[in-house]
Amino acid sequence: MLNVTVIAGTDMPPPQTEPDPASIRGSQLPVHENLISDPSTTYIADGFTMSVGDLWCNDTAYRLEGPVQDNFQHVIRISVNPEVGEISVVDYAERRVAQQTASLDPGDLLARSRTKLDNDRPASRCIFSLMSGDDRLLYQEDWYVVHHGVGYRLSAQFTEHSLPIVGPTVEHIIRSFDPHFPLRRR
Known about the structure:
Blueprint: E1 3-6, E2 42-45, E3 48-51, E4 61-69, E5 72-81, H1 89-103, E6 107-116, E7 122-131, E8 137-147, E9 150-159, H2 163-175
Antiparallel strand pairs: 1-4, 2-3, 4-5, 5-9, 6-7, 7-8, 8-9
């Protein structure tokens, strides 16, 4: 069973259908000139929406908990970077990989490839090796996607023994990733 939680503080399951952005614009939230310059801007999340205006942007990180295998809790993390601009997925991945390899100590980039999601959206896939805090060898897969100038990083870690067991399921889940709405950028 896959438990879905949003690091931002809610553990509500995702809605069954996505709301139409045009149908949820213009809430009854009072407009304060210094906080919300465009009250029709709507933040859409799992199980709720909010009128936030154009001075606010989404900086949400998602965490999907999967099975425990080989005494290791498997998690898919999805981070959203709303300000990458019009950049290719390859360039976005290269930029993020440079940041990632600088922060992995010890850690190594093992493989990098271009791929596609189930919806034919281009993606970049990287595999890293790293040592956990308890000196256990881990493999980390990072997938990078760009949609309407928004960058997404989908990341999962595995042990040497759990990779062949849990890895194919995680790949299937990540390949199903399908961003819908462009996010409001600053």
